[in-house]
Amino acid sequence: MITSSKRTPLTYLVHATVLFLVIMWTIPTAGLFISSIRDKDQLSVSGWWTALSTSTQQLVTRANDPSTQTLEGGLYLIQGNIFDGAPGEVTKFGSSSLKPDAFDVGTKVELKRGQTLQVMKNGDYTFASPTEWKGSRSSRIFYTAETPPRFTLDNYREVLSAEGLGQSFINSLTVTIPATIIPILVAAFAAYALAWMSFPGRALLLAAVVGLLVVPLQMSLIPLLKSYNLIGEFFGVGSKTYVGIWLAHTGFGLPLAIYLLRNYIAGLPSEIIESARVDGASDFDIFRKIVLPLSFPALASFAIFQFLWVWNDLLIAMVFLGNDAEHLVLTGQLRELLGSRGGNWEILTASAFITIIIPVCVFFGLQRYLVRGLLAGSVK
Amino acid sequence: MKKSLLSMAVAVTLSTNAVYAADLMFTPGEDSRFNWASYDALKSVDLSGETVSAFGPWMGDEKANFERVIAYFEKATGAKVNYSGSDSFEQQIVIDTQAGSAPNISIFPQPGLAADLASKGALTPLSNKVKEGVKKDYAAGQSWVDLATFKDSKGDDNLYGVFYRADLKSLVWYSPDNFLDAGYDVPETMEDLKDLTKQIVADGGTPWCIGLGSGAATGWPATDWVEDMLLRTQPAAVYDGWVTNDVKFDDPRIVDAIKEFGWFARNDAYVDGGAGAVASTDFRDSPKGLFQSPPKCYMHRQASFIPAFFPEGTTLGLDADFFYFPSYASKNLGNPVLGAGTLVSITNDSKGAREFIEFLRSPIAHELWMAQTGFLSAHLGANPELYSSDAARKQGEILRYATTFRFDGSDLMPGKIGAGSFWTGMVDYTSGKDAKTVAEDIQKTWNALK
């Protein structure tokens, strides 16, 4: 046995492995986070790992248009700043797309018809011409710039200020909370019965429940919706209601819940339950006073599973709740923000961190009980 | 503690929840360029208290644009229209129609899917009046009617929808400044385009940006290329036969069209990143190369919607422009145009749904979206002056005056081909597989369907 006081190479190996795994698991999250606070134009051209250092970029900008020209000392000038107030440093510039880095910063370059262009290190540029600038098409300036890292909260602002986001947050909670509590409630009773009450066909029933685990839920979408339509017609309500989606999630979550909880509850020491029976406790008393408190860790871990699954779900919500504004869940709302053809990275990354808030709260809230429950079981 | 956290979250989100009102963009009767007569005619229809549910593929900005058009229908008739959009429209509409909870109006991005649902009896046929109306009002009206005419469950032909919002596919996008800097002219014929491609390479540049990546739909931009090349190398009749598989996929004429696409896409010198990058570049990212410094490429062939993916601040007409993807001068096939469109059908019949279809085929519904962004119309009664940009007007004209208009073939083919093996086949082809083998594989999938 390895004791904690004496460090063997194996402990170091264990520590190194743990460290390695932690880093491996955190890198994607870190990348996502850095991406979410990056400028959206930078996001599409370079990776998040380049975000922390000053980068050399070749860029192009359009000068102010000829209507802004001024007359100074016989020359018509068009002036401005490439960076428009943002920090940056020009190293090279050019006036044609063929040679974007032809000139060193500060030099005065002859263009056609006696016109000149000068670009300074801080981004100030001057076009000068002996004759008046004509037309509405302004010239382009190509430049190579050292751009310091630039971070912004614009992505978050864009997601949070989206119309209907608040409503969809509440919709998601309305779907998720009952859809987590109902299956746990049902599954706990069922698991107790399957573990500690003997009745004919118990093993067969359990096998059937386990068998249900392999049914893909996509298969049941149409038949289920059909029966909802019939029932809805009978009661004179629509087929897409909150009750409908709670029941759907309950149904899809139950097999796993029953299976997990039964295994845990069946593993409880039989002496406790038998002595309770001898003392005259009914099945309901045993369930409520002994089994339920003891199986809290299992309940909590399943609650985390179910909550995450329902919270992140899009398919079932779209099918059983619909797409209209009053019923749109958070995942649906965020997808809507992406537009018809998708591809808006910055929204994806920022919304990932916004949707994660509630599941993280749930996880940390329940994790306390989870740890306590585990410890209570181990140091009996 | 958990409780207080939750109530906090609810409070925060409640405060961000905005109430929005549907105001009319343009006051009816004010701007004389609009066809207000068709709006006034709508006022005689009384639908107060009725609700029309509509479901389609448009989300985000497109949804907002469409809702602004709907507002006029609501104002005139008193009906309430609930539009919702989904990016998995194709899957959801199948579920909803089979389960019997279909919306009143469905907006199909692909007629192939609508044909499928029509054969199962999920769509409601439209009246002869609509058919005659479309024939008369639309440019190349008969072809728009044919595209929306499907067989029902008994095998009879019926008109099942009205096209609203067209897309133009035969466009090449470029940066006029870059062309000016390098001294290139816009090519008028396919021969010129090929010469220009060679010229750019000789000058040390890269002519094309091509990206086929699109998540699960990777490969579709190449199907548009092949369709365009087929229309430019063979008469339209071959194209029509190919769509219905009367002309086999591995027919030498089709294989040649695939090779024509390969002439551009499979030459390392012609494509940014080399031929190997074609399949892995996302179609949304590939046009960005036009605007980089130095330019990564000079031309990009893509449909009329692509400016949505140009870098922020790109002005159409100034920073970016387009030209018609030219046809061969030597082949005498006219100027064929490839396009697409969204089909509006009734999936759950009601008076409101029928009136809504009537509204969408009236000029005012087209004009109201034309005056916003991202809308092309083949409606002859819609005033082209109302297009919000010159670029859109130019595209509208290409669409209106096309000698041959053909609908995106992959959208008309069965889903397993047009949204399956054709896509993957094109990815295989750009990755180096032989054109003949690819075509044979696709034909095999098609044979298996029969």
Write the layout of secondary structure elements.
The complex is a heterodimer of chains A (380) and B (450).
Chain A: H1 9-36, H2 40-45, E1 55-62, E2 70-72, E3 75-81, E4 89-94, E5 103-104, E6 108-110, E7 116-119, E8 124-129, E9 140-147, H3 154-160, H4 165-196, H5 202-212, H6 217-235, H7 242-266, H8 270-278, H9 283-294, H10 296-312, H11 315-321, H12 330-337, H13 345-355, H14 357-378
Antiparallel strand pairs in A: 1-9, 2-3, 3-8, 4-5, 4-9, 6-7, 7-8
Helix pairs in contact in A: 1-13, 3-13, 4-7, 4-10, 4-12, 5-7, 7-10, 7-11, 8-9, 10-14, 12-13
Chain B: H1 2-16, H2 36-42, E1 51-56, H3 60-77, E2 80-85, H4 89-99, E3 105-108, H5 111-119, H6 128-137, H7 141-147, E4 149-151, E5 157-159, E6 162-168, E7 171-174, H8 176-182, H9 190-202, H10 220-233, H11 236-243, H12 252-265, E8 299-301, E9 321-324, E10 336-346, H13 351-360, H14 363-370, H15 390-400, E11 404-407, H16 409-412, H17 415-430, H18 435-449
